[in-house]
């Protein structure tokens, strides 16, 4: 027996040692790279990533990524990394001046919306999505990327023209937030070069830099060993690789390249406190950063990846607690969040807690953030919240995993960019999901609780407080913050109380109704059910996503049926209604019950209709239907939830109108709606205090008491028999009185004709312009399409004239729209920010572009660009659940014909220049309303 026992012990030890040995090898095992992506490197040092992905069809996403940004600028180059990005759109070897933008517009690619780029501290990224329905477009796409890589002409005339555009972008960024940032950033990034290298640069350098300075930046840093080309789309990998080798393999490697340094943020023992205020600050914000003492290192092993899961569980739980606090009766902040992530410097990460507070609540918000972190440090988290966090993380990964073959290329390419820039793991969603499934059960609560001790430190700590500066508000002092930090450890703090969560939304099923009629439309592949209570349900089964069902609904009426007195009394209370929860589960309980379940349902009362909308994974379709049922029949009335909502709204709006842009929008909107008895404008503190919750709740129940007046729409991966059964159980069982309502058309009409309103606010030399043509009309579908197209054509012309020719704006846009509800109405808008000295000139130039189309119609070239873009977008939209949902609903809501949806090419191509000109003449010759925002006179 003793021999057997000894042998058993020996065997047990052997097995244990083998397991330990396996674990030791596992923790050092490298994270795999997904087999879906091919990574290569050319002889000149350029890295490439390629992946075939069929969603959407006939489209390729291209990126040129450069490991060079503003951190590499010399003292005479501040802002030139970003300026260089601009110059790549203003002349290259194969695309002179504006030829690049013109070509891309001709194949349906919009400047700004599709074609774009950005510059950060450490990188510059160029984004080019292109249709690839023919080989020429594919070739041209790679030629554009190659030109960006090394063929910029940097013509002196074009550099001087672009100064104005970049200075307008610089001007756009100015304001209270920028002024405060400039003051606190040196403390956050203490002792580092990052603190003096904001990508936008310095105005005096942008205005006066020598041409050689930008050429030197291009020469030093635009080189293949710092570049990656990334191509993801509906093209086979061999073709993509051949294109990359052909276009980029001949770029010569730089001999004796300038060293690409990595820059660090030094550690510091003391706590830095930055308290900044500004009279134009819109929000009050507090932030605590506990910076890591070690620099950021790439995640390469399974052990390191597992650590990220442990951290994500911590983040989920601390934020659940903060969310509970923001939804308490007297919330300490409007919004609060904690996370561990990079600061502005990619080499320095920090544990950060951030909150938006009322203008007088900054110290209380800071105190709450510190206490909640301290509460975790003392008592840790608890099993209930730990299990919910695991469910939440796994559910979201499962959804992504299920849709892995339906993911759009634009949503894939970002992780390859991050892999090149910072070695982010790219094992693929299947590996990530399976690794989480394997490891989450093995992660112990103690592991997560221990993290807080690595986060909270007295050194490397920075506290930033920003907010408004105005009479009656006492600014938080550094002494108050220091006292708070000093006394935190001795404060009495109770453990978190985690109450038991109910398992079911509804204990018993309601009595079933029935389907009394079913109509199938084989052309649109939709089915419409009429339920026994009169409700109509239209659904379309799609395979666009494997794990998605979207829904929406409407019943005519909305607040248009409220008396003026009731409307004004409840307008600011309606938003609080859904914050009370349903079926005696409050908002927090409801969130806990649904943790780990992908389902969201939202009721709404609009001006002319009420609705319930939302989404769910197919496996949670029943919970979705249950919530719909409960929002009809069992909305809670919760005075504490209402108080929480109102207190947050008061805190949020407290200083919003100090922002000159918000102030202008509010004043101009009042001007446009003068005389409208139902126009409320921006709420005051008194308005919020007087909001009538009791009446709002009563009217909500009136709006939702008649389910038979509703039309519902569902689109997605629907299991049909279950769906119909849920319709009978949870929708057909809803009450109905058999009546059909409609909305009340208001008597008032907004301002029309020729008017000018100039509003002065703000100290920065910033203006903005809004030009509006609007009035009543009879809705016509052909005219509506022509008006929309007119807006897109005018946008092209304004970019050419105001940005490229005048160098007077950074961005400009026009839009045209004709609506049917509540009455026929047309609106055509032009908007842009600019310098005050350029307002008159640019308004005149804008009107001239409109008049050219009125007099001569659009050019065939511009019309063709717009048509190509519309065809491309519609083709992609027809593979999206959201697009179908909106079209199905709007076809009934606005009584629009949906039968021609598949004939979109013919409809778009049928639009003529004459029709666009006709619409311009009809609607843009009756005068316009001009709104101008200027800074205040210095006097």
| Overall morphology | globular
Instruction: Label the CATH architecture of the largest domain.
Output: 2-Layer Sandwich
Which residue ranges are poorly predicted, with pLDDT under 50 across at least 5 consecutive positions?
1-25
The total count of helices amounts to 30
Overall average pLDDT? 94
Radius of gyration: 30 Å
CATH top level label of the largest domain? Alpha Beta
Strand share of the residues? 15-25%
Q: Trace the largest sheet across and list its strands.
A: 12-13-14-18-15-17-16
Number of domains: 5
CATH topology of the largest domain: Cytochrome Bc1 Complex, Chain A, domain 1
Distance, first to last CA: 102 Å
CATH superfamily of the largest domain: Metalloenzyme, LuxS/M16 peptidase-like
Number of strands: 23
Helix content: 40-55%
Largest sheet, in brief, is:
7 strands, mixed
* Alpha-beta content class: alpha+beta
Give me a quick take on this structure:
With 939 residues, this protein is of the alpha+beta class. It contains 30 helices and 23 strands.
Structural commentary:
The strands form four sheets. Strands 12-13-14-18-15-17-16 form a seven-stranded mixed beta sheet, sandwiched between helices. Strands 1-2-6-3-5-4 form a six-stranded mixed beta sheet, with helices on both faces. Strands 7-11-8-10-9 form a five-stranded mixed beta sheet, sandwiched between helices. The protein has five domains: 1-30; 38-248, 2-Layer Sandwich (Cytochrome Bc1 Complex, Chain A, domain 1); 272-490, 2-Layer Sandwich (Cytochrome Bc1 Complex, Chain A, domain 1); 515-731, 2-Layer Sandwich (Cytochrome Bc1 Complex, Chain A, domain 1), CATH 3.30.830.10; 755-934, Metalloenzyme, LuxS/M16 peptidase-like (Cytochrome Bc1 Complex, Chain A, domain 1, 2-Layer Sandwich). The protein is globular and about 80 Å long. The protein is of the alpha+beta class. Residues 1-25 have low confidence and may be disordered. A hairpin with a 5-residue loop joins β21 and β22 (825-834). The chain is built from 30 helices and 23 strands. α11 (362-379) packs across α15 (445-455), α19 (621-633) runs parallel beside α24 (720-731) and α26 packs across α30.
